[in-house]
Amino acid sequence: MVLAQLGGSISRALQQMSNATVIDEKVLNECLNEITRALLQSDVQFKLVRDMQTNIKKIVNLEDLAAGHNKRKIIQQAVFNELCKILDAGKPSFTPKKGKPSVVMFVGLQGSGKTTTCTKYAYYHQKKGWKPALVCADTFRAGAFDQLKQNATKAKIPFYGSYMESDPVKIAVDGVDRFKKENCDLIIVDTSGRHKQEAALFEEMRQKPDLVIFVMDSSIGQAAFDQAQAFKQSVAVGAVIVTKMDGHAKGGGALSAVAATKSPVIFIGTGEHMDEFEVFDVKPFVSRLLGMGDWSGFMDKIHEVVPMDQQPELLQKLSEGNFTLRIMYEQFQNILKMGPISQVFSMLPGFSAELMPKGREKESQAKIKRYMTMMDSMTNEELDSSNPKIMNESRIMRIARGSGRQVREVMEMLEEYKRLAKIWSKMKGLKFPKKGDMSAL
Ligand code: GDP
After folding, report:
1. pTM of the entire structure?
2. 270: Cβ below 6 Å to ligand 1?
3. Residue nearest to atom 6 of ligand 1 (CA)
4. pLDDT by residue (tens digit) across 12-61?
5. 168 and 201 together in one domain
6. What confidence tens digit (pLDDT) does each residue in 290-326 have?
């Protein structure tokens, strides 16, 4: 089950339960069975799912919950905690720091998405102000250097490799030395995907890598447990990145299986493009899966794209519940800069990846651009009003004429505005959590 579907099934099960007039044993069981089914379909190990079900039942003792207790909230919290427990594998062995040179070595089987992920990892950090560099120490696969070179060039990231040299150790050492001299703070070494070579590479490099990241394809589901164990035995894996979470049914199984080897997942790959890459943090991830939004992911994106001086103002306006057409316009501008919009929307409570389906981004982007053209024909009064009633017939006709669009389309855009305004109005007074602080959930 692709993640959006898994999340959809779990949140639907919780929703159905809250719709029931009385939450009794039968309703709870139905809800838990639904969640169990979704997790098993996603290839999460049977024992983990069974333990989770038992634990939730233990925590949520319906008879002990006096009337007035918010059962729905208690159950949702229990599901949240149990899912977090399944996915939590602690902290990575090392976290690179901006401005301090670190060497990060990538290992993983061929085809897992290693080379693509090296570039995504570099690009992610580059956008946050780091100075990353890529070294291709894969001398085994013909074309590996070309692939890395191509990716790196596209992302404007310095790279190093050789067509002639056959010794990966030599390339790795030379590359690391060179980029250290150039003051790069994140030197990423891509390897060939053969256990023996990687173990030797690790041993023989003059400067041992600070962190070894194991890259794994999520399509193998719970078999990820054996693969992660095998790699851990040959090289000191400090963190894991799970790729292809966008297209495979078994993503949940892979994530939970990796966690069971006590290897923390730090990022997930959600597509072939450079920016289809997300930080993996257990609590925000589960929160998003349950349709509760992912404030830290959203804030991360806001910090990435909204100019620093506009951030406090935007958050202030949103928390006042004043969602005007101008805010919608500015947010559309930001969304167009943010990259895959399905990713951004899925972090907001009230939106789901199902609303902005993957693969239909082009359509959604075109729609946003169309809306923005119409808003360009609006007056300041219209843009700054938070009262949709001022949009009378003559104004709508004028906007349609001004933007060369149909009246029907202007009305559709205003409907979308009302829908968004309604969602945001629920957040009135909400304290936006600071980065990483999920206590407001
Ligand atoms: P390597 O052999 O491990 O270096 O793997 P590559 O980086 O060459 O990737 C193998 C294939 O997987 C390529 O076609 C990539 O575009 C694709 N790929 C990598 N990561 C992802 C991902 O997160 N999602 C999807 N859909 N494809 C990916």
Report:
1. 0.75
2. yes
3. 113
4. 888 888 788 888 888 889 999 999 999 999 999 999 999 999 999 888 87
5. yes
6. 776 666 666 666 666 566 666 677 667 766 767 788 8
Q: Following DSSP, what letter does each residue of 226-261 receive, concatenated?
A: HHHHHHHHHS---EEEEE-TTT-TTHHHHHHHHHHT
Is 269 touching ligand 1 by the criterion CB < 6 Å? yes
With a 6 A CB cut-off, is 116 part of the ligand 1 pocket? yes
Domain span at 388: 295-425
Q: Is residue 246 lining ligand 1, measured as CB closer than 6 Å?
A: yes
Q: CA 77, CA 71: separation in Å to the nearest integer?
A: 10
pLDDT in tens, 173-224: 999 999 999 999 999 999 887 766 677 777 777 678 999 999 999 999 999 9
Q: Does 71 contact ligand 1 (Cβ within 6 A)?
A: no
User: Does ligand 1 have an atom closer than 6 angstroms to the CB of 296?
Assistant: no
122 with 188, same domain: the answer is yes
CATH number of the CATH domain containing 23: 1.20.120.140
What residues does 243 pair with on adjacent strands? 217
Q: 244 φ, ψ to 5°? A: 60, 35
Of 92, 177, 175, 183, the closest CA to residue 130 belongs to 183
Ligand 1 centroid vs 40 CA: distance in angstroms? 25
Q: How many domains does the chain have?
A: 3
